[in-house]
Amino acid sequence: MGYIKFDAAEMNNLQWKKIMSKQLKMAKTFEIHCWNEEQEEIKMVLPFGELKESCWKYGKIIHGPVTPEFIEYILSLPKPTDTEIYNKMTPFFTIALDNGFWSEHYGTELTKE
Question: Which run of H or of E encompasses 21?
């Protein structure tokens, strides 16, 4: 897969969901990184994992298992409407999977190690 970047021309997050769906099926665990001020986003994902100890003073990391419920939740999220800075595909700054897949900068940059 390599590297994929979604720009402002991407009107919905259907392509992001298609890629994410494939990657989630091949993963066992996830990490979601949120900035400290993203309290609502942190609350949204805590039912699926727990806070991870981290030295990142500007944010929180939630980690947990990739379950069918987690996959369904992530793929059911609508495309965020606050797209002034990033044309967000997801409300989460980073979603990292244990299979080497990263959805970063709110899903605008996807990489696979």
Answer: helix 14-25
| Residue 34 structure tokens | 């949120």
pLDDT at 85: 86
pLDDT at residue 56 greater than cutoff 80: yes
Contacts 24+ apart (CB under 8 A), 101-109: 101/1, 101/23, 101/26, 101/27, 103/16, 103/20, 106/80, 107/6, 107/13, 107/16, 107/20, 108/5, 108/6, 108/7, 109/3, 109/4, 109/5, 109/6
Question: How crowded is residue 101: how many other Cβ atoms within 10 Å of its Cβ?
Answer: 21
With contact defined as beta carbons under 8 Å apart, do 74 and 81 qualify? no
* Mean pLDDT (the chain, rounded): 95
Q: How confident is the model at residue 61 (pLDDT cuts 50, 70, 90)?
A: very high
pTM above 0.85, yes or no: yes
